[in-house]
Amino acid sequence: MITRYGYDVVGVVVALCLTGIAASWFLVDGRLLKSALIVVAIGLLTFTLYFFRDPERRSPAGEGLVLSPADGTVVLIRPTREDEFIGGEAVQVSIFMSPFNVHVNRWPLDGTVRFFRHIPGEYIVAMDEKSSLRNERTLIGVEHAHGRLLFKQIAGFIARRIVAPVQVGDSAVAGQRFGMIKFGSRVDVLLQPGAVINVKVGDRTVAGETVLARLTPNG
Question: What architecture is domain 65-214?
Answer without folding.
Answer: Distorted Sandwich (2.70)
